[in-house]
Amino acid sequence: VQLQASGGGRVQPGGSLRLSCAASGFTFEDYAMSWFRQAPGKEREGVACIHTNAGSTDYADSVKGRFTITRDNAKNTVYLQMNSLKSEDTAIYYCNVQTYWGQGTEVTVSS
Question: C-alpha distances in angstroms, 101 versus 14, 22, 60, 71, 78?
Fold first, then answer.
């Protein structure tokens, strides 16, 4: 299993970023996919999850209404659209499936 996350960067508060995670080594459409994040000095936390059943989604309360997780099963890719970013969204974002983790992509929200 390989998970390759990309799309991180530095953005001002209120800005937007879209993260991508390209997956391989498993039957992508059969598994729920998740995004986690870990801020400096804090534990890793779940951000969003997209299930296989009609693509239903779950979000952490802190990102509801601002972040959107989607998946493209034809491209074996999961996305995280992040809008109205806040300084507290600064973290390394990780893609996850089952017990597998991507390498992370860093997001910095700062003026």
Answer: 28, 12, 19, 17, 13
**What does the block give as tokens for 36?**
């986690």
Cα(46)–Cα(50) distance, integer angstroms: 12
Mean pLDDT estimate for the chain: 96
Amino acid 55: pLDDT: 76
Side-chain-side CA neighbours of 19 within 13 Å: the count stands at 34
Nearest to 71 by CA among 109, 107, 35: 35
The pLDDT of residue 54: 66
